[in-house]
Amino acid sequence: MSPLFGRKAPAPGARSVTLIRKPGCHLCDDAQVVVEKVCGDLGVPWEQKDITQDAQLHDLYWEQIPVVLVDGEQHTFWRVNEERLRKALTD
């Protein structure tokens, strides 16, 4: 997993999703709907992080939000494709 989050890599087979967003962002709201649906369907834990509360995330992603990380690696930004996210989590 990325050293950005200071965590160990997930156990084999375990997946995780992080949605990096900011308040008042309609694309972020749209992305959250997709993340919630796919992760809920697959039983994959997910979390959200607010770039306005984290200077490091802001510096990395401020031009790309919303950003979706899968297992700590950038998966997509701006628009989240449900089928693509589902495939990334089941491969």
Q: What Rg, in angstroms, do the CA atoms define?
A: 12 Å
Strands of the widest sheet, in order across it, are 2-1-3-4
Q: What is the CATH homologous superfamily assignment?
A: Glutaredoxin
Our measurement of the CA-to-CA distance between the termini, rounded to an integer number of angstroms, reads: 17 Å
- The ordered H/E elements are EHEHEEH
Uncertain residue ranges: 1-12
Estimate percent helicity.
Answer: 25-40%
Largest sheet: 4 strands, mixed
Highest CATH level, the class: Alpha Beta
Provide the CATH architecture.
3-Layer(aba) Sandwich
Q: Strand portion, in percent?
A: 15-25%
Write down the overall mean pLDDT. Answer: 89
Short overview:
By secondary structure, the protein is of the alpha+beta class. The chain contains 3 helices and 4 strands.
Helices and strands in order:
Layout lengths: L16 E5 L4 H17 L3 E5 L4 H7 L5 E4 L2 E5 L4 H9 L1
Parallel strand pairs: 1-2
Antiparallel strand pairs: 1-3, 3-4
Helix pairs in contact: 1-3
